């Protein structure tokens, strides 16, 4: 599935920290256009990326590019466990960093992440102080801290490249590229009217041939994929932004409350109200709908 990731408009990237009492909810086998840098403090687990797996025994530090399928990385072995996940869009590299020629080492490191970089134990241990600082910093401090991490990893990091190149067995390179463009289109336009005609034109298909292509690549109808992605966004908006259900509905791209409620129950197993009531009862004070 395509994971829904919200990068706030007043930030260039997203950083989340999880511990034993606040574990990251599993998304299973997933993909997203954003780059991802993950620090797992300790414990054992498996880094499952694409067709390859790497077990770890004392935490892990992994950096992977966008649109690379992978499973969750963290574990729940120890009470003092900590998982820090940093995600940023391609624009962070191609628009923001390009104006600083001094950051060419960082840009090269980010570009190499398309091969999936697994850093060694020494690098992981040495960079811990950087990662644990995030929880005490404001947005400006977080950006400076991220650049410090990338600077350290680009100059001192020792790593294994998991892949020479990333490929999806059984598909042509052009098909993979078109699928990635489809993911990016949905990721950037989920809150608007998603046009099959527009995305078809961008990729050089007729609407019917695009729908056949998408079904072949994902074993899912395009409209079902969009609805599932939007529901994922709605869940994230409810969770992270303390948002009312009706506001989350509009911001995730739905306009019909009854249709939104049906799709929410289809993909979450409960109605929006029941979901909020179970997880965030304080939000119900904001809602009398759905």
UniProtKB/TrEMBL annotation:
Entries under PANTHER family matching the protein: ARAC-FAMILY TRANSCRIPTIONAL REGULATOR, TRANSCRIPTIONAL REGULATOR MTLR
Keyword annotations: DNA-binding, Transcription, Transcription regulation
Pfam families: Cupin_2 (PF07883), HTH_18 (PF12833)
Name listed for the protein in its UniProt record: HTH araC/xylS-type domain-containing protein
GO MF annotation list: DNA-binding transcription factor activity; sequence-specific DNA binding
Source organism: Flagellimonas eckloniae
Domain HTH araC/xylS-type: 180-278
Tagged with keyword Transcription regulation: yes
Superkingdom of this protein's organism: Bacteria
SMART domains: HTH_ARAC (SM00342)
PROSITE patterns: HTH_ARAC_FAMILY_2
